[in-house]
């Protein structure tokens, strides 16, 4: 199947010149395509998608700029009504989208259902907020003078998203932006264009006006970067790797453009001597091998009290060996494939270097040949030192390093001893220990007695340190921060020139 971009409310197959005439934008590269394949069986092609470039981005931004002029003045509760409709359509189509997403990017069906559910949740959450987009009034220092503020939209927001949460992340970004009155041009990852095209179909059916939400598929450098650099794009909202994030931050800074970044992580689960070890094993399995380890919040370090290391490790190993690897569409699959060959090579590189160094491989450590898919065995290394690359770098695959500790302070140093700061969890029955951990851990997310993953739309999501050098947040009560600015408005009804205090 041949998929098109979604621009200005149309499935855009623009090699025609009509829009060039009306917008003055060249449509030169509108014909290039790329294949999207199923990572569980690479002989299955999902479809061909537009390999877009600057002309398509320019066209989409032009349309979004025009749409903004009217969309910003639609009352926020009316904008929210469309989002409520979108939520209902997502509920209706949840199973179909989830299955398509599993085929597109590999994670098991339970997880892709969760991905769509996150989009549904943020749709309801953001739509509800459409009636609560409040500013504030501030008492003036002068008589007969009124001072108030409002949250207002910027205009066109450029969004660049990764493939591991193909609908949830676009929805977390786009829904608040749209309710707040912005328009959007979104470039999804080249590995998951289908899921975002589905989101466009949902908006189309919900009756979103033309040009408010636009999807342009293509590669990062050729489609993403023109979006970042476009002068009419007021804000860039990006989720992806730290390397790309730094590049985007540099470009935005040069242009004086606002940006929001959600980048990589090196998350940990601490297991203390008084932890419920079975519960902790469940948390590590879910955190380390769910989504085949390809979550920004994935657990890739288990930091364990030496006194319970042996017992915990035996339990973890038994559970890991019982995991079934396969196609995420099959009911009995626990762990699906990695996203692509590059991901296999990256994971294999870390594992091979570790073996060459003599690191202790406890489980996995090899590719699995199955149906021409990108499968890799859940892998555990133990007795890893905190400065080992396995304990420092984001591997983004099913690889976990076990690191032991002797004292609470030593454990906190290990947890905080990476450049990332997204998520960390502790399993403990000691309430004092849990509060010390939550206070001292250098992350945006801290969990007690549950895995280091599990975002909810009511909570702010984001990190510190290299995960988000500007501490951007999404969802929760900060979901409008990236996509609105605060305007202060003053009315003087005294009928005379009143001078505010100047000395
Ligand atoms: P990438 O940074 O490679 O890609 C993310 C997006 O950026 C894709 O759409 C990609 O396009 C695009 N892109 C790549 N290069 C450029 C460029 N030069 N200019 C503009 N856009 C570009 O990350 P991954 O797709 O590999 O995603 C995984 C990463 O995302 C991990 O590091 C993970 O931790 C992080 N992540 C962070 C989250 C958070 O909330 N903190 C949540 C989820 C993931 P294309 O791929 O089409 O080339």
Structure description:
This protein has helices at residues 18-23, 54-71, 76-105, 109-129, 168-179, 193-206, 220-229, 242-255, 277-289, 309-321, 341-357, 389-392, 408-416, 431-440, and strands spanning 5-7, 10-12, 33-38, 41-50, 136-139, 145-153, 156-160, 183-187, 213-215, 233-239, 258-262, 267-271, 299-305, 360-363, 367-368, 375-376, 379-382, 399-405, 420-421, 423-427, 445-448, 464-465, 484-492. β7, α5 (168-179) and β8 (183-187) form a beta-alpha-beta unit. By secondary structure, the chain is an alpha/beta fold. 38% of the residues lie in helices and 22% in strands. The model has no long low-confidence stretch (mean pLDDT 95). Strands 14-17-18-13-12-20-21 form a 7-stranded mixed sheet, sandwiched between helices. The chain has a 5-stranded parallel sheet with strand order 9-8-7-10-11, sandwiched between helices. The site of NADPH dihydro-nicotinamide-adenine-dinucleotide phosphate has 29 residues, from α7 and α8. NADPH dihydro-nicotinamide-adenine-dinucleotide phosphate is lined by residues 160-165, 187, 189-190, 219-221, 224-225, 228, 239-241, 244, 247, 262-265, 296, 394, 396, 422, 467.
């Amino acid at each position: 199947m041949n998929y098109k971009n979604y621009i200005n409310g149309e499935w855009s197959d623009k090699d025609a010149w009509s829009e060039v005439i009306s917008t003055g934008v060249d449509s030169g590269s509108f014909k290039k395509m790329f294949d999207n394949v199923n990572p569980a069986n690479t002989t299955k092609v999902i479809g061909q998608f537009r390999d877009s470039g600057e002309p398509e981005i320019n066209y989409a931004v032009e349309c979004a700029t025009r749409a903004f002029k009217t969309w910003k003045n639609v009352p926020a509760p009316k904008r929210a009504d469309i989002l409520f409709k979108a939520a209902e359509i997502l509920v209706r189509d949840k199973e179909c989208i989830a299955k398509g997403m599993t085929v597109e990017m590999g994670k098991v069906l339970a997880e892709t259902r969760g991905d769509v559910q996150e989009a549904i949740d943020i749709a309801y959450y953001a739509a509800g907020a459409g009636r609560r987009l409040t500013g504030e009034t501030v008492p003036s220092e002068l008589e007969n003078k009124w001072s108030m503020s409002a949250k207002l939209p910027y205009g066109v927001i450029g969004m660049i998203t990764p493939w591991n949460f193909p609908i949830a992340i676009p929805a977390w970004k786009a829904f608040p932006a749209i309710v707040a009155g912005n328009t959007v041009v979104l470039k999804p990852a080249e590995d998951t264009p289908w899921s975002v095209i589905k989101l466009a179909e949902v908006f189309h059916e919900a009756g979103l006006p033309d040009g408010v939400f636009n999807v342009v598929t293509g590669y990062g450098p050729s489609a993403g970067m023109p979006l970042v650099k476009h002068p009419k794009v007021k804000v860039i909202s990006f989720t992806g790797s730290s390397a790309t994030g730094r590049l985007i931050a540099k470009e935005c800074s040069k242009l004086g453009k606002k940006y929001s970044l959600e980048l990589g992580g090196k998350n940990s689960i601490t297991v203390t001597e008084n932890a419920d070890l079975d519960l902790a094993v469940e948390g590590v399995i879910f955190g380390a091998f769910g989504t085949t380890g390809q979550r920004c919040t994935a657990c890739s370090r288990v930091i364990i009290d030496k006194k319970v290391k042996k017992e915990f490790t035996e339990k973890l190993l038994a559970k890991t060996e019982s995991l079934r690897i396969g196609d995420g569409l099959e009911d009995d699959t626990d762990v699906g494939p990695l996203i692509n060959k590059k991901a296999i090579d990256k994971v294999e590189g870390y594992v091979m270097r570790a073996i060459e160094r003599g690191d202790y491989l406890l489980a996995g450590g090899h590719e699995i040949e199955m149906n021409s898919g990108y499968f890799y065995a859940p892998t555990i290394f133990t007795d890893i030192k905190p400065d080992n690359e396995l304990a420092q770098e984001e591997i983004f695959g099913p690889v976990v390093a076990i690191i032991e500790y002797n004292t609470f302070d030593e454990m906190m140093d290990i947890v905080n001893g990476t450049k990332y700061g997204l998520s960390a969890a502790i399993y403990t029955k000691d309430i004092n220990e849990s509060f010390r951990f939550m206070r001292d851990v250098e992350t945006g997310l801290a969990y007690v007695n549950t895995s280091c993953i599990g975002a909810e739309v009511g909570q702010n999501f984001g990190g510190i340190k290299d995960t988000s050098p500007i501490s951007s947040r999404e969802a929760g009560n900060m979901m409008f921060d990236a996509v609105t600015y605060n305007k202060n408005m003053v009315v003087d009804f005294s009928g005379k020139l009143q001078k505010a205090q100047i000395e």
